[in-house]
Amino acid sequence: MKTTCRMTIPYTTLNNGVEMPLLGLGVYAPRQNDEVQSAIECALEVGCRLIDTAAAYGNEREVADAIRSSGIPRNDIFITTKVWNEDQGYNRTLRAFNRSLDRLGMDVVDLYLIHWPVKEHRHETWRALEKIYSEGRARAIGLSNHYPNHIDELLTEAHITPAINQIEFSPYCYLPEVMDYCRQKNIQAEGYAPLIRGQKADDPKLVALAEKYGKSTYQLLIRWSLQHGVVTIPKSVKRERIRENFDVLDFTISDEDMALMNTFYDNTRIADDPRDIL
After folding, report:
1. Where would a tag sit more exposed on the chain, N or C end, judged by fewer CB atoms within 10 A?
2. Residue 5 backbone phi and psi in degrees, to 5
3. 115 carries a ligand binding annotation
4. What average pLDDT does range 128-138 have in this prediction?
């Protein structure tokens, strides 16, 4: 997958030729929906062109309002949403997708994902996504929170290889074998919760490295993810934090320090571990 540059944010090319920004804004904010629109507007102002939402987040309408008020052409913004577990299955997924389009006020989304692997519905849900894709109502389709065992099972019946696999990704839950698998299958990895909701902001190992580069620990975590070639979607509703999160393109972590950060694994997560899902 080649990487090009548009504005200041690098893009990656998915396995179907669609270009996707490598850095965007996650809007998982269940108790902060009143702040979502202003957060998106701020992110768009600093150059963000990727917004990641989901039906389960309950803020697709706020995403639509923010894009509309920004004045930025819809085609310049990459929009991701997801089907929730209770809506999985062939017909239910199609209905859920229509509801998401209605809330977003769009005819097409750029990326539609299966939010979690639900065993009894995996194949039928993916079949619905393939139909949505074939009709041109999603420019790309993919998965979220799926690990190799889930994808291997899906691929036994799939006609389309997922373009994206969105997983929790930070040095503290870094599984090289999952990343290697995605590369082998030509599936672009996307990482959520790169900041681990601040749980590791004061880790002495991280603090020491951040001081070396003159950056915050949050900026170092985002840069680490980007240098792995992973699409990265830090979440924040605070304007100053959003600006800081996007100010990560003016430095490079050395190979030595990248290797060091790769050893920070302790399975710290903010979401469930997909390895526990059969």
Report:
1. C
2. -125, 130
3. yes
4. 98
